[in-house]
Amino acid sequence: MTDTVYSSSASSAGHAAPQTVDPGVDDFIALLKPRVMSLVVFTGAVGIFLAPGQLHPVLAFVALLCIAVGAGASGAINMWYDRDIDAVMTRTADRPIPAGRMEPETALAFGVTLAVASVLVMGLAVNPVAGALLALTIGFYIFIYTMWLKRSTPQNIVIGGAAGAFPPMVGWAAVSGDVSLGGLVLFALIFMWTPPHFWALALYRDGDYARAGVPMLPVVAGRRETKKQILIYTVALLPLSVTPWLIGMASVWYAVAAGGLSLMFLGHALRVARSEGDAAPKAMFRFSILYLFAQFALMVADKALGLGVWS
Q1: Is residue 5 domain-resident?
Q2: Is 12 contained in some domain?
Q3: Which residues lie below 8 Å from residue 232, measured CB to CB, with a gap of 6+?
Q4: 25: pLDDT strictly greater than 80
Q5: Is residue 3 part of a domain?
Q6: CATH code, 224
Q7: Would you identify the family this protein belongs to, as annotated (predicted)?
């Protein structure tokens, strides 16, 4: 797509000279937030794999593709709406819109097209429940988190975390056609993991958020309260992490491994609580990504090896 904007310098005729903004393929890929998408696709795939029932491999691929495209659409629309604060934050200033490589309208059109297409294909090709859940996921991320919560409350990540917790439920519904306890447990794991994950990042990026006027918890309540909340949510993850075993989704071997991972995560939270600098929050943020990946991978391995009741 090519858009025309006008530079501030005048042409020889005394009029603004047209300047072409021609975003490249890399810019459109950047709009999709590939790193975020990869985690969304993984958790969505786990939901598909763990759900009871059978789904034709082609439909499973279609469902996973729709989840990926829906996540990318949300990222693109998020970048369109947040272009003002992205421009003043160090970690986002080089995104296509604030960097001047893409017109905002192009990003919005791209995102809306992908959102509509992903929901329609999911609903028509897989099942209406999965399509409705995908629409809810996209709508929640854009309207509830991006447009409302992110700029209005330090609880933005707590409530807004639901958007990132929906994908395994969408995958589950793609197979089962409903929302059952197993899908809700997968949702709850990500929902409770999100605050300590993002607040660890916010602790060493608080200057960015302050400049952008985003009321992240460290900016509004301070570092001490943020560390306290990180610890509270990490402690809450301990019993939740073994819930798949308690409800019969996974074996005791999963529970032992998942509990061990949660204790390691708690160790990071305790180090953050006692630390003064940025080293501990950075380490916790990095481990948090590994933690979630490992928790979901353990459930996949448990079912694949026939260790739990699924066998």
Answers
A1: no
A2: no
A3: none
A4: yes
A5: no
A6: 1.20.120
A7: Belongs to the UbiA prenyltransferase family. Protoheme IX farnesyltransferase subfamily.
Range of the domain at 50: 20-178
Neighbouring C-beta atoms of residue 138, cutoff 10 Å: 24
Same domain, 202 and 71: no
Same domain, residue pair 99 and 191: no
* 3-state secondary structure labels for all residues of the chain: CCEEEEEEEECCCCCEEEEEECCCHHHHHHHCCHHHHHHHHHHHHHHHHHCCCCCCHHHHHHHHHHHHHHHHHHHHHHHHHCHHHHCCCCCCCCCCCCCCCCCHHHHHHHHHHHHHHHHHHHHHHHCHHHHHHHHHHHHHHHHHHHHHHHHHCCCHHHHHHHHHHCHHHHHHHHHHCCCCHHHHHHHHHHHHHHHHHHHHHHHHCHHHHHHHCCCCHHHHHCHHHHHHHHHHHHHHHHHHHCHHHHCCCCCHHHHHHHHHHHHHHHHHHHHHHHCCCCHHHHHHHHHHHHHHHHHHHHHHHHHHCCCCCCC
Instruction: Please state the domain count of the chain.
Output: 2
**pLDDT tens-place string over residues 112-132:** 999 999 999 999 999 999 999
Exposure letters 30-68 (e unless 16+ CB within 10 A, then b): bbbbeeebebbbbbbbbbbbbbeeebeeebbebbbbbbb
Position 91 scores a pLDDT of 87
Output the average pLDDT for the chain.
91
